[in-house]
Amino acid sequence: MTVAGAVIDxxxxxxxxxxxxxxxxxxxxxxxxxIFICIPFGLVIGTYYKIFEKSLMPFLxxxxxxxxxxxxxxxxxxxxxxxxxxxxxxxxxxxxxxLFNTIDxxxxxxxxxxxxxxxxxxxxxxxLLKVIVPMxxxxxxxxxxxxxxxxxxxxxxxxxxGANEGLGWQFFSANMAYNVPMMFGIIxxxxxLAIIINVLFTKIEKWFSVWxxxxx
Length: 216
Description:
216 residues
């Protein structure tokens, strides 16, 4: 059995599609939670609470350095073995690039534009939405692309431990059955999916760049 044949057979049976959908759902939920929590938090902290940012940053950097694989047992104890645990694993690894890149974006803002906006009486809400957000978009999307790649590969790893579904579980099952073509097929399949996701977010970034220009 060839690698391509193994993947095609799994696609025809619907097994690979089903496991892909389950993995993507867990990635999507955890990743969206990270976006809705970390980007606003980074914008607000970086813009209005810089003293708080400096005092909190060493602790956050320390948390970022913790090996996520070592946390798998902790997440299993706290959230059980199931979808919630997988979502929280994705949230954990996704939050750091989003948060730090957003804060870096605020740090590197053009001071002249900020002073001009404030001198023209920009209110706090409009200042954040129409000045800070557009100017930090390149940094935010750098964090988004880093986070989604980490999240996608981490969900595969987490599904190899204490799971009975998902792409990681399918790879583990193929490994246990010594189904080498399927093992290599899933590796190639996952790599192609990661490339597609990266291209998709690059296109979204270009679309938001147009919005940034129109905002200014």
